[in-house]
Amino acid sequence: MHNLFEKTTNHLYPFLWVHGSETDEEYIEEIEKINQCGCGALCIEARPHNDFNGPKWFHDLGLIIGECKKRGMKVWILDDSHFPTGFANGKIKTDYPQYKKKYLCLKTFDVAGPMEQGSMILKYVLKSPKDKILGIYLQKRLGFEEIDTDYTIDVTSQTELVDDYNTGKPLFDLIGNPIPGAVGGPCLRVNLDIPEGTWSLNVVFVSEKGGEKETENHLNPLDAKATRVLLQEVYEPIYEHFGEEFGKTVTGFFSDEPRFGNLHGAENASIGRNSEMVLPYAEGLEQMLAEKADVAEIGKELPLLFIGSSQKAKTLRYHYMDLVSALYSENFDGVLGDWCKAHHVMRVGHTIEDNNAVARLGYGPGHFFRSMKHADMAGIDVVLFQLVPEFDDAFKSFHKPNWDGEFFTYVLGKLGSSLAHLNPRAKGNSMCELFGAYGWQEGNKLAKWMTDYMLVRGINNLVPHAFSPKAFPDSDCPPHFYAKGNNPQYPEFKQLMNYANRLCHLLSDGQCISEAGILFHGEAEWSGDYMFTQVPAKELTTHQIGFEIVSADYLNEGHFDNGTWNMNGQKIRCLIVPYAENLPAQVLVTIRKMQDGGLPVCFMNGLPTGTSEGTVNNIVIDGNVLRAEQLADTLQKAGLQDIHTDCECPKLRVHHYVHDGLHLYFFVNESSYTRVQTTVTVKETGYITEYDAFTDTLVQDDKAFTLDLPPYGSKMVIVSDEPLADAKKEYFTYEPVCDLTCADVVLTDFEGHTKELAMNPVVYINTVDSSFCGRITYTFTVNCEEGYDGKAEVLGATEGIRVLVNGKECGVRICPDYTFDVSFAQGHNELTVEANTTLARSINDYISQFMPLGPTGIKGVRIYRKKQ
């Protein structure tokens, strides 16, 4: 057998939640169950632990690390006592308040003049007595939230503190109710003369207040000293206790969703598009911004970070975002990454990508590609119904406004794999935390769909969410895979994990083949009108054209390589630029260089009209200007497509990967209802072999590129120069014999109680018992005049199915097609079908309400005979 298949390395790191309330025996049992289902590692997560950094915490860590060492398993450790990363075990709030997050804030009053010797009350502007005013400016008003900073009167020095009647008394809200705990202090006023006309009085100040409540006591990720508190309070104590296992059993620290947190969410966190949003700040930031933007008097320009649509405002926002995303990269990600590297462990994890947070503030880190520049794996996550079959547009689900299905379907997975390909430190390794918080309704079939979503987009390490040793049922973000033995899905979960791990292994340490690069929209969003990356990404995905999402930083580092643009070994043959009013000047220079070298560049909806820096665009940019519906056809006609189908297949996904001289083509049908039937043409020639990752078998088949993929179906096809050892050569056709419609049925619920039924005809169990959850055993009788080999197709199956004939195992399936090789003897035969369910119909948990509960059981069996 080809050496690629000789030994599969581990690519699975499921969460193990540790609360501190579990016994040693409970932890050991859960580790055993993790290992038994095919996972060679785990990630410890305090959820939260009731004695974090105390004796019980280190006892539990030692126990888990020791048990994993016995089994040859690896361990990652989530890097904080509480979600999300940045809490630093609460020490920022209690011991290091100077390192709390700080925000740049703006309060605007529109005023009219002329008025001499006037005053404005500023007592209620500041959010806290600790707040610091940076400047107070009277600026010419051009319209609503539009100012001309060239006409600025600096009145900062004209402030005064005076007593008022309320000094020392409680403050009141807008409708006269006392504000709990708030006591009035001296009144702050600014004295000013207002010239004729309308003006805006802009108060710029710094505060610790105003961000999202969930992270108000978290560290400031722009400050390296703040990040070192996290190292001091979490990383280093673990190293002191278990340093001898670092780089051996302990192989990584996992950061979970660190963020700026200046706003809750991502939808209103795009700079310049929400004047009420406070902005991330660090000491001296205004001076750094002044130098970066080449502005002599930065104070009076700061209001443009919040308001205004002028080019000057867009330019300043670009410089600000460019600055804070770089500071985050160096002072948070970089500090953690350097420590991990020095201590021989990996830095892994993910930020929040939800609803386009990847280029924004709020939930975001400012810039997805920079936020994990110092990580050893690119990381993403999928939870809470962000991915749902059939939804690739905005849809209502768990999230309050909506989930942007177009982003999640066409961008999220490719962001992770693209960063892994482009970042030298990642070495092609990407990871996704997935399956979590879909409720007990999530079974292995849906989990397999999500797994395929990741694999076909190039994600090659998975963090299943989660194993919980807490008493069943644990209401914290189910499903839990073992659940103290109560989850009917667990016996088949091993099949899914083995399938995923084998394919992750094949899709690692090689080369992704991508025709196109799509320029990441981040810098364009910061500096003007823009188009989301998902617009062209959707067109390429639905037409099976491979692509990478390319950030400006990596694009500028690229070079020509035999007619391609090479970035860290990842090559593209054309560049697609989503519409951008402005782009960084260096990006325009790079694009011009690519064009001069003959590399095709396609611009969506229009050419850039300026630079993000606000300089005159004297770089001649031309090229194809296309609408979205023209893109795929244009690339196809230009020969920029690696894979061709003989018909339109919008639900077919393809990943072309080269590993150890083998060309691997992974095909996935992302429809949950419709088959994909097409014939694929590829450029490579040689021996064609199909690899079944469920059974770990190879079948040589010259017709393997003729696809007939059921809903949830996938197929790996390999093209090699030489025949693969152990590849079978079996071709059979079948003819239908009969349908089995009556059976003896035994229901075994998840608590072990049984009930017997006789069904004629077989119907879904929920029509008989709408709350049943467990395993269903059907016994069918097959009488044969003579024995024969054939297939059994289980009809109407909705979750995992196991089939036996006369007690002999015929296999397990967790998704369509539910077909099994069977052999019948002459005379009486018993065909047994075991079907499992999820736990949703019994538990009826909160999260499961967001998807319909499928029927339980099967509708019968169809028997086929092998043709002679």
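Next protein, fold it too.
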Amino acid sequence: MKFIFILITLSLFSFFQLTANKYTISGYITDESGEELIGATIYVKSLKTGTVTNAYGFYSLTIPENSYQIIYSYVGYETQIKKVELNQNVRINIVLKEQSKTLNEVVITAERKDANVAKAEMSTMKIQAKEIKKIPAFMGEVDVIKAIQLMPGVQSASEGSSGFNVRGGGAGQNLILLDEATVYNASHLMGFFSVFNNDAVKDVKLYKGDIPAAYGGRLSSLLDIRMKDGNNKQFKANGGIGTVSSRLTLESPIVKDKGSFIISGRRSYADLMLMFSSDEDVRKNQLYFYDLNLKGNYKINEKDRIYLSWYMGRDVFDYDDLFGFSWGNKTFTLRWNHLFSEKLFSNFSVILSDYDYEISQSSEEQGFLWSSDLNDIKFKADYTYYPNTQNTIRFGVTGTMHHFNPGLAKGVGNQTMYNELKMPESNALEWAGYLSNEWKLNEKTTINIGLRGTIFQNMGKATVYNFDENYEKIDSTVYSSGEIYNTFWGLEPRVNFKYSINNRSSIKGNYSRTKQFIHLASNSTAGSPLDIWIPSSPNINPQIADQFAVGYFRNFYEDAMETSIEAYYKNMDNQIDFRDHAELLLNPEIEGEFRTGYAWSYGLEFLIRKQTGKFTGWISYTLSKAERKIPEINEGKVYPASYDKPHNIAIVVSYDFSEKINAAANWVYSSGNPVTFPVGRYEYGNMIVPIYSDRNDYRLPDYHRLDLSVTYKFGVDKTRGLRSELNLSIYNVYNRKNTWMLFFSQDDEDPNITIAEKVYLFPILPSITYNFYF
């Protein structure tokens, strides 16, 4: 901690020494549709310095008075060079045109070619929507999270699942943001699809360890997804008809060059197929999911812009009006960008998040209703100060109010026999402030230093159960509405460095501390709609992680191919697991089921990636270990985490045979999940009782799968301005029967014989999708 304070002090001292007698060039960089470009490069060749645009396309560069040629570039777009006579502060907004490329020059990355080597950040992965689109899709559904699962250090929670684990962390230790709003359950159809419609997505960035000081609340990763802003020049539309669902996206100016909107919808139609059944009862069933994304933005003046984002998605299953199950997310983000000066950029946000589920049985006499919900109200103020080319200072504050309703089950109807069962509701306040500085010491060395302070407060109205050392309930304490009855606080230092060996290679390292105050209660490695979130409390301490990482980064063939090797070690305290045979559903005393201890993980990550030319893709390999030690579990002995997979390989390739035909493939391999198996048995009365192994002492068979896809682009219909394409995807080409679950049961004829039965989910699955653009 002292080291962090010293670095911050030195970097700020350098800022005060370098700000005199300079002027600022600032502005926004967009494409021809008005879409703001994130990470566009601004470079002054004579000074060998520059900057990049932020998440809103804004840049600021303070340099000495002189004449300059300023180079504006963004990979895949035509470079612009502006001659500037700098003797005062100037505003220069740039519109970059997309390059007309030959087939050999196709580019699918949005970052500068040498970003892998030149950027100070590490342990991050950025992937564009058009790159995701080329990956063979499960059931034809292009999926952001399925693409993320193919990156090094990231593992799929299970077959077909939208849950993922990062560097030995649990699925509940990932912070997933959609336009800065938290998405608590990112899955549709029990996890087979994610809630993110790729047609509405502009930018996807995963932080596996080097999480910026502006973000916190989770131990393992940050998945930051940004929606498109909409075309502010002209009306555009695109969509698709697939095997599982159909999509439609519309974007248009509100006022040309000043504001725009985008609306994007997606709905599955399994239930529509049921309408053709000859069975009337089957026709009454419903099974579908939908997503609706809406975003608008408006430029009030040169200093003020507002953005409004809204998302709603839901899964619905109704059986003949007798039984119903539904769950879904809602998010809302209102942001105001304001320029206090050419050097000080600010963003103020009001953010709402909500996740709920409901199970019901309809009956006029005896029915029941089971519901749960979690919602957040958040305010953020973020500032970025650009004093000079050596420093970029970021600071801000965040306040969040959480409301937890873990579960309520009650009878409905005139003659109900069900008693009401209610888990205690609770509230919490989470506060944070941060300060960071990206400090360029010289041409070769950059250090990014940050410090985040957090406060978490439990607030009534609440009922807290008190337990003894054996987790037996003693009594309970009731707190009145608005009463603060427990407080946690702590500091989270973050630091990384980059040293450039030459213009083709660099060494990077980072250290970060993260804290997590709300915890996912789930007995499933893949996650379930019925999972609930529980706040830290007098019975549950916050989770804490310290992660160290170092890496070597090298580009080849004029930056056409990037490679990296990263090593990491993560130590985690107050890690949560559950006692054997824990009861998590509708248990008012659920905190008594928690057991806490230590966990650690370490590994090596290898990546080779090519993003230009006809042939693109990447190869990733992760060698890792994730273990835990909790005194009350497994007799206090070390055991593998349920998501410990020592070997993980992903090969993703795409080839453009011509301007019209593209083929793609991906092959994945991973070690099997650790599991607990019965290893013996004994008779008790007339019953045979199994004896189980140590926790996670066995493994399922290794997992591997090959997927293929072919896309054919039709010619342009010039009369209607219509472009279209047809995509054929095949999931699990060689029909591998990967084990999803193993059941053990007694033989019907001889109860002394135990039978193991394997459950697998997906055989070979072809799908077809038609996409259109106009």
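About the second fold: Residues 2-17 form the longest helix (16 residues).
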